[in-house]
Amino acid sequence: MFVVMKIIASAIVIGVVTEISRRFPSYGGVLAALPLVSLLSIIWLYVQGEHSATLSKFALGVLWGFPATAILLIIVYIALQNSLHLFLSIALGGCGWLLFLLIQNLVLDYVREIFS
Fold first, then answer.
1. Does residue 1 surpass a pLDDT of 80?
2. Is the pTM of the predicted complex or chain greater than 0.85?
3. How far is CA 12 from the centre of its chain?
């Protein structure tokens, strides 16, 4: 039952943001940029009894993924501005996201080697 409640609450948030975005695209974009999914996930994990250490690791993972997500959104924005099809724009953004994460991990490994 709890899983169904999580799905319904999350769907309501997405539905509200989508409806606001239809009427006011800029405001909808700002709302969508809020860490709603991250915060909902942290709340669901907390309610399910996860320890603070798990919540902390989750928050760090979200923070670690933020730069790659920014790259994805920049690529999608540029692609759509240049009249590329939505799904192609998203695919390019996804590739940029994955590439950025791989480069980010390689750089981190390299820095760890230097300082170890």
1. no
2. no
3. 18
